[in-house]
Design brief:
This protein has about 180 residues and is an all-alpha fold. Helix content is about 55%, strand content about 0%.
Length: about 180
């Protein structure tokens, strides 16, 4: 059993995972080079910005498990770009810049191989169950803090240090509509 399947899952689950991964490759490939190259550039730019923010303290979070988690994305994106550029989506007459050297059959075969390679890489670099549980708990704690902050911001009667310190808590009067005469 590989690390990627430490939580269990039968052969049907594994097959569905592999088919889904291959399908995502095909969907991005079929969107064409004109769309694909923009996706590749933006995702890579996002990684560069993430690295800059992480290096200079703009991203404040716990442990950052970059290589152990989603480093499989680089071979996925790079492989997809290397297949899309000589690929045939869209047709050459569309003027998207792709070379249209690969027909559908060859590109589908190459994408299937890429899918298997990325699957193997992803299962080797996936996060352990313990790290995933830590991230889930951290997210729950962050959500609780955000809910408190949102609730405090929406309720003007809540006392928050610095904003209404020293003033008594009061709530806006509520109108009782049950005693209004009906028209």
């Amino acid at each position: 059993m590989t690390q990627g399947h430490a939580a269990g899952g039968g052969s049907v689950d594994r097959l569905a995972e592999r088919v889904t991964r291959a399908a995502t490759l095909m969907i991005v490939y079929w969107s064409g080079w004109l769309t694909g190259w923009k996706l590749y550039v933006v995702v890579m730019l996002g990684f560069v910005l993430l690295a800059i923010f992480k290096a200079f303290g703009g991203v404040r979070q716990g442990a950052f498990h970059f290589w152990q988690g989603f480093s499989w994305l680089f071979p996925w994106l790079d492989g997809l770009a290397l297949i899309s550029y000589p690929g045939n989506f869209p047709e050459k007459s569309a003027g998207a810049g792709n070379l249209c050297l690969l027909n559908f059959e060859w590109s589908a075969l190459i994408l299937a191989v890429l899918s298997v390679v990325v699957y193997v890489i992803a299962n080797r670099v996936c996060l352990s169950t313990e790290i995933v549980q830590e991230h889930i708990e951290q997210s729950r704690q962050e959500a609780a803090v955000e809910e408190e902050e949102i609730g405090a911001a929406r309720d003007p009667g809540l006392r928050r240090p610095g904003l209404n310190a020293g003033r008594p808590l009061r709530r806006p009067p509520r109108h009782d509509w049950s005693h209004e005469p009906r028209a």
